[in-house]
What we know:
Blueprint: E1 17-21, H1 25-36, E2 40-44, H2 50-57, E3 62-64, E4 78-81, H3 86-98, E5 102-105, E6 118-122, E7 125-129, H4 135-150, E8 169-174, H5 185-193, E9 196-199, E10 216-219, E11 222-223, E12 226-227, H6 231-243, E13 247-252, H7 262-271, E14 275-279, H8 284-291, E15 304-308, E16 323-328, H9 334-343, E17 351-356, E18 364-369, H10 373-380, E19 386-390, E20 411-414
Parallel strand pairs: 1-2, 1-4, 2-3, 4-5, 8-13, 8-14, 9-10, 9-13, 15-16
Antiparallel strand pairs: 6-7, 11-12, 16-19, 17-18, 17-19, 18-20
Helix pairs in contact: 6-7
Amino acid sequence: MAISDLYPTSLRLLGRSVLVVGGGPVAARRAKGMLDAGAELTLVAPVACSAVQELAASGLMTWHQREFASADLHGVWFVQTATGIPEVDARVSAEADAARIWSVNAADSESSAAWTPAVARVDDVVVAVNAGGDPRRAMAIRTAIATALETGELPLQRHRLSPLNGYGSVALVGGGPGADDLITVRGRKLLAQADVVVADRLGPRGLLATVAPGVRVIEVGKAPGAHTVTQDGINQILVDEAQSGRRVVRLKGGDPYVLGRGSEEAAFCRAHGVDVEVVPGVTSAISVPAAAGIPLTHRGVAKGFTVISGHEELSILPAGSDHTVVLLMGVSTLRDSVASLLANGRGADCPVAIIENGYAAHQRVTVGTLTSIAAQADAIGVANPAVIVVGDVVRLSPFAANFSEDPLPRKELSVP
Length: 416
């Protein structure tokens, strides 16, 4: 049989009578697949492997423990032979052909009336692969396609609304610190399925170029002192788009639930009857310091850390530099934060690092102390997006290799 002789199609077996002849592992796999499709399955074999016996014992199918008989074809829609005995498989297939019943002959693909493809199911997408009668080749291709679907490398956007899924949804996707390849697999997959992307200024901006043609990208990014769309406006956009039957991805930087107002967006959507999925992201509070080689905890150096966005709350934190403090959105209030930390008992020589544009080509790391860092930041024009790390763990960074106990060290380094 030439591959061009095949007409690929899908069978709806739900509630239909199906026959499997054979009791080995191949028969068990085929039986399992047909049962998953809702078939009413009968299996005929004088002996059977443990997998077949388990299916029969569960009541999912009927097993006749005997040889095949012509009467077994009565009322059957589809037949699978897998006895391992070519003569028996050929007989079953010939009788099925004579009765105009489609059959798969596992022993002889060339003469088989039908072929069983290698199948992958990803959500509501089913991919079936035939590879010229080479099952292992078909499975390898199937697996590669399934992986690409799972990771969002292949387009998953719907072009027709399903009558069962005509109502839209919102996914709050944490895009990570900005590098395109630091988004989660789940987030990347949902982005490939999106009809609308509501995008922040931060996050994996390069991925916006990969969305399918026709996907609308709504820019709602906020910069300090420049909010083109208010938070109330963002909330309403999410609900309006979802209620129009669209799959909406709210692509945010970092993690949507770490100082990202994601919980407010989720609550607003749910209050308006919109389904919401929250996809965690790699928060910049942890990942950006890591980009500069700074662990937030380290045995013998620091055993805890606090992530905070304002200087007012710093007075209630542990004062020792063995407790790491991570400041997000803290550039404009850096002097106030330094004053609060010093007033709360942190030493003047406590190390501080500022990491700008973490993971980007123009990432820059500035290392100093509580008494020097504000002046350093002013001198070189430190700007958001930036993460500020305060504590002894800063000394572990390779960017602090020349850091001394002098209260006024200066070290500004860029990552090419």
